[in-house]
Amino acid sequence: MRRKASLVLLACAVFFAALSPLLRWYAFPRLARIPANQYQDMVLEAKDATLLDYGSMRAKKVSKVTIVQTLKGNVEAAERIEKTAGRPVVVWDGLSYLEGPDGKMISRIPERYIFDAHSQDPVHATGESVDGDPVKRDGIEFKWPFLTQKRDYEYFDAQTRTTSPIHYKGTLTFRGLKVYYFEQTIPWTKVAMPKTMPVQGITPESVAKTGTTRWYSTVRKFWVEPVTGAPVYGEELHKEELRGGTLLGGRAKVTAFAGDVKMREDYIEHTVALVEHNRTLVLLMTSYLPWGFLSLGLLLLALSLYLEARGRRPEDPAPAQATEPAPVSA
């Protein structure tokens, strides 16, 4: 019986020891994916911002500018692209909507972002765009890869349609979570006018005829939870200017928008709670279960060897039976 039990334990030990790397290196890349139908929104605010009044073409202080960002998974487009890409793909149809303190639109910029469901690497396909203009992204956008590393990443900037490094600046604690802090500076760059303008009758084409151009600069900051690769907080020191041309009435430049854009508090709380939940799921596949299965395999192996050793130990000799003394005849 000991022999059979040791063989069963040995088989179980091999099974769990083999399951440990399989779960980490085979199952994890196939199971840890961004859902193709995911929908998320985010509200950011820039309080005490500077905003252009298109009626007077003068910059003025306003109490608040609100930015609503939505990302909606396009399942139909993802399935179509997967057929040629040969890997799981996510298609996010995004919208960045800016409104002033009166609720009126400042700008409305749609975007389509196509990327690998696990690695977050961009996937180039028809439809990849920003504000209706075709683009070819390099680097990440919106989300870091699972198991983010302490290094710089290439990050795509939708305003300039270019990619540049976003630098790892250190490890911090944010709302009880260990996060990696990243920062990217975009210097003053000439960028396209939004195709949807805040004043009826003004179009990018009509502005271009005046010789006025739009310039943009920002300092982009992200606090990223490294296990999930999800930003739990973001902030931008955002600046836009209109420069030159007859539209400004002889002035060299005017501020179109300037403000410190931050996530709204209720969305911070929601994001942190969601990331904490997803972090546990990722750790199950990358740490808790692999190490647990490996430890269990080693324990079962030790128990199997112990039983095998007990089974091979020579048995003690049987005790001699006491015999009754024979009666002595007279």
Written overview of the protein:
- With 330 residues, the protein is of the alpha+beta class.
- The protein has helices at residues 2-31, 75-85, 204-210, 265-312, and strands spanning 39-53, 58-73, 89-99, 105-116, 129-130, 133-134, 153-157, 162-174, 177-191, 213-225, 230-243, 253-263.
- A hairpin with a 4-residue loop joins strand 7 and strand 8.
- The chain is elongated and about 140 Å long.
- The chain starts with a helix and ends in an 18-residue tail after the last helix.
Strand order of the largest sheet: 6-5-4-3-2-1-12-11-10-9-8-7
Element pattern in H and E:
HEEHEEEEEEEHEEEH
**Assembly level:** single chain
Radius of gyration, in Å, reads: 32 Å
Strand count, sense and barrel status of the largest sheet are: 12 strands, antiparallel
The proportion of residues in beta strands is: 35-45%
Which regions are unreliable across 5 or more consecutive residues at pLDDT < 50? Answer: none
Mean pLDDT, as a whole number?
90
Form type: elongated
Number of helices: 4
Count of β-strands? 12
Residue share in helix: 25-40%
Please give the alpha-carbon distance between the first and last residues.
55 Å
Q: What class would the helix/strand composition place it in?
A: alpha+beta
